[in-house]
Design a protein that fits this description.
Helices cover 34% and strands 19% of the residues. It is α+β, with helices and mostly antiparallel strands. The protein has two domains: 223 residues, no CATH class; 83 residues, no CATH class. The strands form five sheets. Strands 2-1-3 form a three-stranded mixed beta sheet. The protein has a three-stranded antiparallel beta sheet with strand order 5-4-14. Strand 11 and strand 12 form a beta hairpin. Helix 5 crosses helix 6, helix 5 crosses helix 7 and helix 6 crosses helix 12. The longest helix has 21 residues. It is elongated. The two termini are 30 Å apart. It binds zinc ion. The site of zinc ion has 7 residues, from strand 3. Zinc ion (ZN) binds next to strand 3.
Length: 331
């Protein structure tokens, strides 16, 4: 799941000027039409969970999202889709408010993707390496399903807006203490995706990680990226100037006489994040990374830390996405 955050958000184009039709407004009137054959997935999940009638008519259940799943585009109601995304993307022991914050971020991501059609015929796919992961709600225990559904229901129809438009609600696993500017990772500045402190993540699995490669591999990886790199006899001369981003990531690191972007080095060496330090010895290059993912937007473990401190999902969202509003989507 964690890799999904990287690739999902990393592949988001930053053509921020693209007009989106969805705007905040009153919750759409409930859909009362008979279900079409395309709603089979939604209907079966709803039946399996025995959703009370009073919950059956909601914004999320009225929106059919084209989802690319196992090579086929299926139309899935947003409620079922978001329930499956929460099941795939968050550990079961997370707090309710963190799960609600994630539900709103994922709803925003899905609706924005629908407006832009990330895939030719589908808004999103269920491949965690491309869009967001999705676990069939019918395939998990009733308890887990109810937990995810509760977060979706509690935030029904809510999405995140900046100046009246759906935001690019990127999220990731763990920042290592500070999130990153969008511009530092993707080159395009978005005012609501700026570096903020993200305390309390120390318990996350990848808060800090080590990775070592042999010096021979280190050289060959860099040579494959740029044959012009050179490695003089003195090891100390292999590393030149290092500049850092606002969020503590490596912006540019000069290696072998050639400047490499932190994002490029992350990819080349398979590092968990761009927030790393590096030490060279006679035999190895050792990387120490902070956090996991692109570190732009909502930190899942940071959200969990805020939730455990008693913060609401709205407080969590407006902390990680600055200057935004959380509002009901209009149809
Ligand atoms: Zn996709």
């Amino acid at each position: 799941m964690k890799n999904a955050f990287l690739s999902a958000a990393a592949s988001v184009a930053f053509s921020a000027l693209l007009a989106l039709t969805l705007r905040p407004g009153p919750v759409r009137a409930a859909q009362t039409a008979a279900p079409s054959p395309e709603q089979t997935i939604a209907a079966s999940a709803a039946a399996a969970t025995e959703i009370p009638l009073s919950h059956a008519q909601t914004y999320d259940r009225s929106v059919l999202l084209p989802v690319l799943r196992e090579g086929e585009t299926v139309r899935m109601d947003l409620h079922t889709y978001l329930t499956g995304v929460l099941l795939a993307e968050l550990p079961p022991d997370f707090s309710d408010e963190a799960r609600k914050a994630q539900a709103v971020a994922c709803r925003t991501y899905a609706l924005r993707s629908d407006a832009r059609r990330r895939h030719e015929e589908a808004a999103v796919c269920t491949d965690s390496a491309c869009c967001m992961g999705w676990t069939d709600p019918a395939a998990v225990s009733a308890e887990r399903r109810a937990q995810a559904e509760a977060a979706v229901d509690a935030t029904d129809g809510l999405a995140i807006f900046y100046e009246g438009r759906l935001i690019d609600a990127t999220f990731f696993s763990c920042s290592g203490g500070m999130t990153e500017d969008a511009a530092a990772v993707w080159g395009g500045d978005l005012p609501y995706l700026r570096s903020v402190p993200s305390p309390g993540e120390e318990g996350a699995a990848h808060f800090s990680d080590e990775k070592q490669v042999s010096l021979a591999e280190f050289q060959s990886v860099l040579r494959s990226a740029d044959p012009a790199v050179s490695f003089p006899e003195q090891l100390g001369a292999w590393v030149g100037t290092v500049t850092r981003t606002a969020g503590g990531g490596v912006d540019v690191m000069v290696l072998g006489g050639r400047p490499f972007r932190g994002t490029e080095l992350r990819k080349l060496f398979g590092l968990r994040s761009t927030a790393f330090t590096m030490t060279l010895t006679d035999e190895t290059a050792s990387f120490t990374t902070s956090g996991y993912g692109h570190r732009v937007g909502l930190s899942q473990y940071g959200a969990e830390a805020m939730a455990r401190e008693g913060k609401s999902f709205r407080e969590i969202l407006t902390w990680y996405y600055r200057g935004v509003t959380v509002e009901a989507v209009s149809g």
